[in-house]
Design goal:
The complex is a heterotetramer, with 2 copies of chain A (289 residues) and 2 copies of chain B (388 residues). Chain A is of the alpha/beta class and 289 residues long. Helices cover 35% and strands 21% of the residues of chain A. Chain A has 2 domains: 11-120, NAD(P)-binding Rossmann-like Domain (Rossmann fold, 3-Layer(aba) Sandwich); 139-288, Succinyl-CoA synthetase domains (Rossmann fold), CATH 3.40.50. The longest helix of chain A is centred in the N-terminal third of the chain and has 13 residues, at 19-31. Chain A is globular and about 55 Å long. Chain B has 3 domains: 21-92, ATP-grasp fold, A domain (Dna Ligase, domain 1, 2-Layer Sandwich); 96-220, ATP-grasp fold, B domain (D-amino Acid Aminotransferase, Chain A, domain 1, 2-Layer Sandwich), CATH 3.30.470; 232-384, Rossmann fold. In chain B, 40% of the residues lie in helices and 24% in strands. In chain B, helix 11 links the parallel strand 16 (305-312) and strand 17. Classes of the chains: A alpha/beta (289), B alpha+beta (388). Chains in contact: A-B, A-D, B-C, B-D, C-D. Chains A and B meet through helix 4 and helix 5 of A and helix 4 and helix 9 of B.
Chain lengths: 289, 388, 289, 388
């Protein structure tokens, strides 16, 4: 058991013939991911490392029985690629692309809500089930199989925390980067409920950051529905209002909404300890394992 | 990317939203000439990107040329919350009987836009929202349908806008929404939308924030970007293509990935230091980007020490190390001490390349931050000591 | 029991202050319809024959507890009015307006499918439950209460058939004009299933016409799901292909789709007798009552 | 409202769809001059609204000026399926290696548009649809989203269009959809979309039907309407604002409501007559409209008798009767016998007003139709008899 992806997932890569697409497809295959097809308009009939490429996602999914897509399409064309993936009724779509215009994502999100597809991202490092498969750009070597689920809005912060976990001998069931944009497909709650239902996951690390109300919603969910212990980390305590801290979604509004403190308070109220440093988060996890 | 008031008003006016007559001026003489042409009374308004300009003395209402000269002279060149005022907007003063608020923003929780209307315009709407949320009518808009006329009416009548102007306000709200959608705005507001004694409505202020990720398809707005950047260093960051935010502290911070850089800032604070900036070099950065990043942080005169924190995923430690060497080997004397922490992809290769005569290396994030904070405190203390 | 509307329905009229709106509101009230409100932007606070007018449908529905709307708004503004009615989550919306652009209706239809509201029309005469209430412009005096349900794409053809029924002493449960446009809210099947479920309705008259495939779908529905006997009439046997016969929806395509013969055949195959004249339809109904 | 080929091509070309060079000509000399300017070979194409122009001799391919003159002379003035040809389009002949079909139409069952692409262009697509439905790729489009690029590609690659031109064809399909949506089309097709040896694609024919109910917001297309009307009487009907269709028979028909008028036509046929037209005066018609309707039907020289069938709902019998009186009282002799049946609202009042010296009154629809058919047969017989 694992959430979202395992060694049996049949993965197609949108944008497989681009530089990033080709590079990370190789990394994914090396890690053991079952990449069965690529989709790039006009490149149908070609192959990338023996993986057949199709002109449309529909054809790739149909011919190779793919159920999962990883999207490396450049931002100007990414919304179209995501809509195409939704139209093909895949189970899971992981959007790596950074810099998709918000209004494009707003329209994609509208369509997403009419489908049964799970979208992770965009602007995310991907999903990994250590030892089984990875989708996206996460560096596989820092992960180790184990019992802790991890969900984060940030890529490199995820690596930092995973590294700390792994160095302390604590492995992971699945790690999910949900993405740093204001509008993302699956939020913390969407991942937390999967971890809660996953019998292998004994504890969860949740790395939030300033902006939005996702962490507050997660706190409500944890308090109401979760038995699995959760430890938290919130980045951006020192961020001033009105300034975007890198991620399009990491911004404290002029009115003070989305501050780190409000998120930390909400998590604490839900019984979730929040570490001041990544090491402290690992301490909390060690306490409950 | 936030437009200046005069830029936003230009965009609004082009779309048919009524705005007061106005002219931009960068000298006192220009300002007085503009005021004479428009006719008194006029408002003289500092064009800088800060909230609360009025309270801070950045807006003056004047009745004649002499007052205009005095006000322009006072405002031009003033320092408003850290930003230098080099232009003023000279604008017709509108006689009003009522001040409304209308705005459109992205509700990120719902993933769709929301329009807002209130009869409590002219004051800080965030405060109204906090104290009397019922005073703001909110109407979510299906981003695919776009705002329908009935939705605009629902918000306007729902907010209790007087029936005499409700039709015009609805129409302006519809236009604002269309602008919001067509120009890739993330936020757009008119506060106040003034109502005159003749039941005319006119946008007395204009706020428009544009999605930086969509500037590639808004070339005319993209051209306004450099001009809109508030600070020299922020303008430089735009040029280099960095995500950069300037802060007040003295520990310069460079890292890869927004979450990790924010965490580095937080740790600087946690260990008693004060971050000077947020600087994300992004994923997969090459040596040149690293050099540029160091150049940026060194250019900030407040910075006393730098922490360089990289956790490589697609960013490679060897590239980072090469970039650091190149940046520092050009100096006779390293301007500010640099603490480096490299982890992840090719970190070992990076460590071999790195010229450790020029930087201090630490193995963990916590140690690197503590070291940089200590350097900064030492140097700041030395400076203070020297001047004492 | 009756379908769609009865004396308890709480009706609001969109466009009540217009000429048609005011005239037909009076007729509806005279017939016994419970008209509780009107909605016209900018006319809030006024009254029409003592019926309060609101600026928005939402306010009218909320303040007067309306569950049904009749729409007399001119075609250029009708789609907006219908979207407003859908947004107010009414149970039933009857759109009388003729001449709504097809693409406007296509967008309304898209929204309609996301709601629980029943839309009748546009370009329809309305709905009447004789002796209880009428919604729309049907001349009440030709109807009589009884046991036959009637559903029709055409207004005056409905009157003709109802007149024939009434003259022969056959009353009606409810008569529904579903409208003559290519895109309508509720099709034949939507009404037939309500008549089938209505215990008072002992037989149904269905008046179709050329264009589209609604009658063919109705035939399939009747054959599979209906026990109540149905008699049919199809207008437009003599219509040439490619010419619009008045109704925007009444057109036989160049390829021959939508002909009267295909509809008559489909109904006959489903066991539905189709009259050559309105009188013959009434003969068929007399046979089964 | 169906545009002429030349009108549709103009609209397509303005939107960026490649079309062959062409010029409209209404005299033989103009046609030859246009052909000389474009360069041979050219196609000379009758501009009338009928299908199968080619088979009927309305399109000729010519190689030089002499042939152009001959063809223009033959086509201009010809009678094509009942329509007079008064203009030809002189068009560059395109060398092609492939003929595709692309189109957008409203799927009324789904209430949403559907795009269609086939590699079997250049032939009657309805036949392809009937015999080999798999040869047409169909892609439904969410009318609110509009056609997305991926949907165009899905249809184009799905139809098996050659990869060398798939990108261009997808782009043209996207443009056609946008036109369809922006111009309130009900149907729009290019058949054939020619593919040249150099992998260029070009719209060799163009069909565009506009929603008559949306002409109010398509003023430029509305101006094309009169010109597009095929028949003098249909042009007159446009002017009067009647729903009118001309047919081949001799019983003129006037009624209110599409379904009832169609039924009246069907009954004329049922009782052995032949309808001359469909004419719906609409709901709530006043006396003047009734007069105009009678004028229309009298103007049709094929008509031998008229049946006037009104079931009043919002149409009032007294208004109708007044209109009939006014129309007929102007004549010294009634040109063609008129049978009237009035039912519904104010029918009794109408009957009192109606001048029964001028018309024949019947109580039921069936009786009225039978009477009109009999009149028409008598008069047609008399005419035939007279000329024998």
């Amino acid at each position: 058991m694992s959430i979202l992806v395992d060694a049996d997932s049949r993965v197609l890569v949108q944008g497989i013939t681009g530089g990033e697409g080709t590079f990370h497809t190789r990394q994914m295959v090396e890690y053991g991911t079952n990449v069965v097809a690529g989709a790039v308009p006009g490149k149908g009939g070609q192959e990338v490392d023996g993986i057949p490429v199709y002109d449309t996602v529909g054809a790739a999914a149909r011919e190779e029985d793919a159920d999962t897509s990883v999207v490396f399409v450049p931002p100007a064309f990414a919304a179209d690629a995501l809509l195409e993936a939704l139209d093909a009724r895949l189970d899971l779509v992981v959007a790596i692309t950074e810099g998709i215009p918000q209004q494009d994502m707003s329209r994609v999100y509208r369509k997403l809500r009419e489908t049964d597809t799970t979208l992770i991202g965009p602007n995310c490092p991907g999903v990994i089930t250590p030892g089984e498969a990875k989708l996206g750009i996460l560096p596989g070597n820092i992960f180790s199989a184990g019992e802790v689920g991890l969900v984060s809005r940030s890529g490199t912060l995820t690596y930092q925390v995973v590294d700390n976990l792994t160095q302390r001998g604590i492995g992971q069931t699945t790690a999910v980067g949900i993405g740093g944009d204001p509008i993302i497909g699956t939020d913390f709650v969407g991942i937390l409920e999967r971890f809660e239902a996953d019998t292998r996951t004994k504890a969860v690390v949740m790395c939030g950051e300033i902006g939005g109300e996702d962490e507050e919603e997660a706190a409500r969910f944890i308090s109401e529905y979760m038995d699995t212990p959760v430890a938290g980390f919130i980045a951006g305590r020192t961020a001033p209002p009105g300034k975007r801290m890198g991620h399009a979604g990491a911004i404290v509004s002029g009115g003070g909404a989305g501050t780190a403190q409000s998120k930390i308070d909400a998590l604490n109220d839900a019984g979730v300890p929040v570490g001041d440093t990544p090491e402290e988060v690992v301490d909390h996890i060690e306490d409950v394992l | 990317m936030k437009l200046h008031e005069y830029q936003a008003k230009g965009v609004f006016a082009d779309a048919g939203v009524p705005v007061p007559a106005s002219r931009l001026a960068s000298t006192v003489d220009e300002a007085v000439a503009a005021a004479d042409e428009i006719g008194y009374p006029v408002a003289i308004k500092a064009q800088v990107q800060v909230g609360g300009r009025g309270k801070a003395g950045g807006i003056e209402l004047v009745d004649d040329a002499e007052e205009a000269r005095e006000a322009a002279d006072a405002i031009l060149g003033m320092d408003l919350k850290g930003l230098h005022v080099d232009r003023v907007l000279v604008e017709e003063a509108v006689d009003f009987v009522d001040e409304l608020y209308v705005g459109v923003t992205m509700d990120r929780t719902e993933g769709e836009p929301v329009a807002m209307v209130s009869t409590r315009g002219g004051v800080d709407i965030e405060e109204v929202a906090a104290q009397d949320p019922e005073a703001i009518a909110r109407e979510h808009v299906d981003p695919v349908f776009g705002m329908q006329p009935y939705e605009a009416r629902k918000a306007v009548y729902g907010a209790g806008v007087d029936r005499a102007v409700a039709r015009d306000v609805s129409s302006i709200l519809g236009t604002l929404y269309d602008l919001w959608a067509a120009r890739d705005a993330t936020e757009l507001e008119v506060n106040p939308l003034m109502v005159t004694g003749d039941d005319e409505v006119i946008a007395a202020d204009a706020v428009m924030n544009i999605d930086g990720d969509a500037l590639f398809r808004q070339p005319d707005l993209a051209e306004m970007e450099d001009e809109a950047a508030g600070d020299d260093l922020e303008a430089k960051a735009n040029e280099y293509g960095f995500d950069y935010v300037r802060l007040e502290g003295n520990v310069g911070i460079i890292g890869n990935g927004a979450g990790l850089v924010m965490t580095t800032l937080d740790l600087v604070d946690h260990y008693g230091g004060a971050p000077a900036n947020f600087l994300d070099i992004g994923g997969g950065a090459k040596a040149e980007r690293v050099t540029n990043a160091l150049d940026m942080v060194f250019s900030d005169e407040n910075v006393e020490a730098v922490v360089f924190n990289i956790f490589g995923g697609i960013t490679r430690g060897d590239e980072v190390a090469t970039g650091i060497n190149e940046a520092l080997e050009g100096f006779d004397e390293i301007p500010k001490p640099v603490v480096v922490r490299l982890a992840g992809t090719n970190a070992a290769e990076g460590m071999e390349i790195l010229n450790t005569d020029l930087v201090t290396v630490e193995a963990t994030l916590e140690e690197a931050v503590q070291r940089a904070v200590a350097y900064a405190q030492d140097r700041a203390g030395a400076t203070t000591g020297g001047s004492a």
